[in-house]
Amino acid sequence: MDFLSVGTNFGILERRSRTYITAACASWNLSYPEYVILRHLYGHDGICQDEVASRIAADKGQVARNVKTLETKGYVIRKQDDTDKRFKHVYLTEKGEQLRQPLQQILDRWISCLTKDMDEDLIAMTIKGMKMAADNAAQVDIDVVCSERGKK
Question: CB neighbours (10 Å) of residue 71?
Fold first, then answer.
């Protein structure tokens, strides 16, 4: 198997997806990470900010900064947890909710571009494989894997 091409292809997908999403969201002044957080909130409104970071496998500090920016832009509000003040829950505002359909359309158009000339079986298998790879990547302890490099 050509592992170099796998890495190259993942890189192309990631960079081109970021470029497309950023350009498509320019009129709302949304960055790619902000887009990802909003899209996640559409299925999990009111989720704890730290849980957002965990679910999208992102740095808690970076998610906190992006959520704060989304709050400044009026797309979300944060509320402290009633029982544990360390936790903040993130809720969509009406302005944020109004972007649900346009952001879905942006994703639909991009997926359509990515899956051009693919049949339904290949699309389903690709999605399943990418989900498995993403789940595996999210669970890897990077420090352990890096320290094992010298042991072989």
Answer: 17
Q: Tell me, what CATH number does 73's domain have? A: 1.10.10.10
85 in any annotated domain: yes
| 18 within some domain | yes
- Domain count for the chain, please give it: 1
Residue-wise pLDDT tens digits, 53-73:
999 989 999 999 999 999 999
Please answer whether residues 87 and 50 qualify as being in contact, where contact means their C-beta atoms are separated by less than 8 angstroms. Answer: yes
- Asked if 50 and 18 count as a contact pair (C-beta separation under 8 A), the reply is no
Q: Residue range 79-99: average pLDDT?
A: 93
